[in-house]
Amino acid sequence: MNSRRLPPALPVLTLLAMLGPVVAGLWGTLLPAFGHLPAAGLTGPSLDPFVELFDWAGLPRAAMLSVTTGLGATAVSLLIVTLITAGWSGTRAFRLLERMLSPLLSVPHAAAAFGLAFLIAPSGWLARLVSPDLTGWERPLDLLIVQDTWGLTMTAGLIAKEVPFLLLITLAALGQTDASRSLAIAQALGYGRLTGWLKTVFPRVYAQIRPPIYVVLAYSMSVVDVAVILGPNTPPTLSVQIVKLMSDPDLAMRLEGAAGALLQLSLVIGALVVWRLGEVAIGALGRRWIAAGHRGRLDPVIRQTALGLGMISALTIFLGIAVLAIWSFAGYWGFPDAFPDQLTFRNWLRHGPGTLEALGETALIAVTVSLVALILTIGCLEAEYRYGLPVTQRGIWLLYLPLLVPQTAFLPGLQTLMLQVGANEGRLPVMLAHLVFVLPYVFLSLADPFRAWDVRMGTVAAALRASPNGVLWRVRLPMLLGPILTALAVGMAVSVGQYLATLLIGGGRVETLTTEAVALSSGGDRRAIGVYGLMQTGAALVPFTLALLIPALVWRNRRGLWRG
Amino acid sequence: MDKGLSLRNVVISKDGASLVSVHHDIAPGDVLTIMGPSGVGKSTLLAFITGTLAPAFDAQGTVCIDGQDITHAPPHRRRVGILFQDDLLFPHLSVGANLAFGLRPGGAQSTRLEKINNALDEIGLSGFADRDPATLSGGQKARVALMRMLLSEPCGLLLDEPFSRLDAALRAQVRDMVFERARARLLPVLMVTHDAEDAQAAGGQIITLA
User: Fold this and answer.
1) Does A207 lie at the interface with B, CB-CB under 8 angstroms?
2) Which parts of the chain span the membrane according to its record (chain A) (predicted)?
3) Angle at CA A153, nearest 5°, toward A147 and A158?
4) Pair (A402, A284) in one structural domain
5) Maximum distance among all alpha carbons in chain A?
6) Do A558 and B81 touch (CB under 8 A)?
7) In sequence order, what are the beta bridge partners of B156?
8) What's the CATH code of the domain at B153?
9) I need a surface site. Which of A15, A360, B170, B192 has the fewest CB within 10 A?
10) What three-state secondary structure class fits B162?
11) Does any domain span residue A461?
């Protein structure tokens, strides 16, 4: 109806940037999986790649590991988050957890995984702290804790990282449910706090956090960096095996890799179906439980347990980073000493130049990708505002779609496709691949504050003769400086943490802190890993800190914009 | 008629049900008050006039300001000022910058500065140019919001429950100031409110919606 100048091209571009690589990648996986790879002189269709894949003796175990670690990590982290929120939301302990959320979230998966490994390995920090006084161990036990055959440590590492993510999502959903009044009524009817919350609030919250839970499931089943660091080796998880095949100099191995990628995709789809059926079953049981009217006599016990588990999961990450820091400065550190004999800068001097180079690459990619994602996001949200587009549940699922397709299913295909069209592997394709993962998170981070902005401000500004672009640039964006910088920081943290996209699409030639750190894992040089892991964490954490500091500084004389 | 704000056969409906229908000319310096309980669509009428009606509503009829049809004009070209019950001062701008936002562009920096200082003098807030609007009292904020709107030299004025957030003592004072300035500048005023006292104080015709 009005001449509104912002081009609606941005939403279309955003969808293309988010879904284009996923669709192209799946296509690029499908063809070689059925024996069609002209670049290697092979034309299909044939089922040979699948035959070879199924001939691999490790396959049943690798596939099962993918399913058990994924389902286990998702279920346990959801359970912890649900019980903590049920038992503690609104209390002081809960606010403490909330405050730890941002730093916990920004720690990259790889750094958290290394931290966990350095903590709980037989020669890890925990063993050192209690040995030999309590245990009598003079040398590390010969026990396979890290990289255990069942993938338990890997599952634990995933849980530690997914708990803060799910808690964040739950908090956002909680804001949109009338939780406190429902809980007050339930408690007035004699229900315990935890049981009352589960029976009245949880169903509403769950309906809202369902998409991110599916993302966690798909991610946990197909994660590569955490699996390389913490997961079993003989055989590895299916995703790790796919990456091995895709990195083989023999192009023919890519066919088997592509077949594996399709299998991975179907496993994830199968697991999502199982999860959905589980939802139905638990829903039915839950309704009976609600109807039975139990007030929750075990509440206090469960409540304390949940808080304990949540604290352990948070502590794991913080202590993990602490032990990475110690190792990065460690001189000689023999078992079972709790601390190194001396602290030294030697490790930093030795690995510093290498990390700085990787840091430059990491920062260049992260900043570029996050800025592009931010521009696209603001374009979408502003178009939504100017054209009065409705926000639908379907639109939200679209946003989560690129995160639901397992990385190991479409990234190998994207790499193969690039190979076929002769595109150069390098920084630019890596950036485009990062954008697929960064965009949804930047969008999800900015969407709520952007939409919550009082549109009457826009009406007033327009009545003062400010054009739509004038309103955007002179009023809306400055007012949203804080959330915008936070969204940028989220995007940068996601980009910094990307392993597979960098490795595969960069053809091994784009070296970021994450690819370098994960590459070190096989060598077992704890000092080098400490340096790289700490740098990786810093690269993700610094933007978050700036996102807090800059608005506080810029708006120090504008009390109306102080947050929280 | 040429001057003033005219609503001709305006009907706003949602899902086929009519919410508001108005056919009225407001002469320069006159006030039309539309009264009714909240939720009957008073504010949608103002949204229609400012050009910010949500797509869920259907609107028919025309809006003219000083004889010019603005029904389909973009919001920033309508020359209609609006005050809400909240002051809606831009929190990221100083008091002076808020006024400068309203002031029409052009003119030397020094002239603009002078105009802003004069405006501050006029509302009894001399020397407040660099203040953070969040540090002002409710009455001071209301005065800045009014002055910001007047500096944009609108041809008509819309009031959306403008005094309902102010406490009783302040209320009459701010109300008198708004109507006085509007009359002095010969602005046609359309006010929606649920408050009978505000409607009486406006001194113009009152349309009551059920």
Assistant:
1) no
2) 62-89, 110-130, 150-174, 213-231, 261-285, 306-330, 363-383, 395-414, 426-447, 480-501, 529-555
3) 120
4) no
5) 80
6) no
7) B80
8) 3.40.50.300
9) A360
10) coil
11) yes
Residues of B whose CB is below 8 A from A3: 74
| Chain A interface includes B79 (CB < 8 A) | yes
Range of the domain at A308: 59-326
Shortest Cα distance, chain A CAs vs residue B1, angstroms: 23
- Identify the band that residue A415 occupies on the pLDDT scale cut at 50, 70 and 90: confident
Report the domain count for chain B: 1
Which range marks the domain in which residue B158 is found? 5-208
Q: Convert A215-238 to b/e letters by CB count within 10 Å (16 or more is b).
A: bbbbbbbbbbbbbbbbbbeebbbb
Does the structure show a pLDDT above 70 at A157? yes
Q: Name the nearest CA neighbour of A431 among A518, A516, A373, A346.
A: A373
Cβ(A314)–Cβ(A100) below 8 Å: yes
pLDDT digits (tens, 9 = 90+) for B27-83: 999 999 999 887 777 889 999 999 999 888 999 999 999 999 999 999 999 999 999
Quickly list H helices, chain B.
42-50, 95-102, 109-122, 138-151, 168-184, 196-202
CB of A558 less than 8 A from some CB of B: yes
> Among B140, B193, B139, which Cα is nearest to B166's?
B139
Rounded CA-CA distance A366/A345 in Å is: 28
- Nearest CB neighbour to A464, from listed B51, B84, B101: B101
Q: Is residue A174 part of a domain?
A: yes
- Kindly report the CATH number assigned to the domain that includes residue A209: 1.10.3720.10
Q: How far is A127 from chain B (nearest CA, A)?
A: 54
Our CA dihedral for A475, A479, A484, A486, rounded to 10 degrees, sits at 180
**A106–chain B nearest CA distance, Å:** 29
Q: Are A384 and B55 in contact (CB under 8 A)?
A: no
CB contact under 8 A, A459 and B52: yes
Total number of domains constituting chain A: 2
Which residue is it, tokens 């990450």? A317
Indicate whether A12 belongs to any domain: yes
A462–chain B Cβ distance below 8 A for any pair? yes
Chain-chain contact of B54 with A388 (C-beta, under 8 angstroms): yes
ipTM (interface pTM): 0.92
Partner-chain contact B76 A1, CB within 8 Å: no
Query: Which residues in chain A are contacts of B44 at CB distance < 8 A?
Result: none
